[in-house]
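Retro notes, structure queue

What went well: the backlog is down to a handful. What didn't: a couple of records were mislabeled last round, so from now on we paste the full input next to the output in the thread. Example, using Peroxin-7 from Ostreococcus mediterraneus:
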Amino acid sequence: RDASMSDHARVHALVRARMSAMISPTSFRSSVTRARYSHLSLQHTEFPSVDGAGATCFDLDRVERRYLLCGTVDGGVHVYDTESTSMASDGDDAVRTQALVCAIPGGGARATQSRAASPSTSSVFISDVTAHAYAISCAKWLPSDTGMFFTCGFDAAVKCWDANSLLEASALELEAKCHALALSSISTSHALVAIGTDDAVVRLWDPGANVIAHTLSGHRGSVRAIDWALSSEYQLATGGAEGDVRVWDIRRAGAFMILDRHNTQQTAHVEGIKDAMYAGSSGTTVGAGPKPASRKMADSIPDHLRSDAARRCSSSSYSGRGHARSGVKRTRDGGWGGWGV
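Corresponding output:
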């Protein structure tokens, strides 16, 4: 009680100091926030381990936002229910633990030693098969359903699991260690799993047919990070050990963008600029690459690099003649162009 009274007195002193303009608003906010944070009570919540192995990766499902998928250093997989808790004793203190739903043991030597020293887990569904021989580097839920998840590890294996039976639905054996995998959450035309490996190659795996549908080469080091874009189901971003971050369109072979953190100038990077220089005499429409991120970036393209087929349109109109329609568009340099629609 005395501590609470002293805290109130300290806050009132800060308020009086602020009202008299003795301290700035920023200092007042920081002091009050620090005083409140120092008296927060934290819950002692822990995630128990079946075999005592260290965790290497996590993924919370996006459907119910409840089940936590955990990969361990011994090649095992654990699934926790974050909304179901139980009390466990830790010496003299009671610790609230998250309920373990199921587990797939690892196949390494470390897993055998840790299971021998682990407590009984008779109430937990444990699979009869082993997950990976070495540490799991990445584990991901299927974005649209909690009935399936994927794992990859340093044993050069990528596996698709049935979450209900804890059995392999599909498996892929590679020749290099797997560091990361990713699944698109917006895809409607494909179900490809992007895999980053130690041999600097990005592989697109179709788990239904269990084949490599496409490979993307360009990194000079192992691919350590990978993720799909949220704006397009065909765009993929990867990060390599050499320091490059590349953005890919999986319908093409090469990356269409390499991110450079040392380049801070906002300049246009129009991919089709070379083709646009020679498109004036062909009479065809040539795309000038991706849409610029801003008007400033679009206007930074020199006028002498703009061809008739790549100039930006300032206005457009349509005229109907029977069943046929023709489109007329005005370009920025005052010219006009017509297309049959």
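Agreed that this is the format going forward. Reviewer comment attached to the example: The chain has four domains: 14-41, 45-259, 268-310, 313-341.
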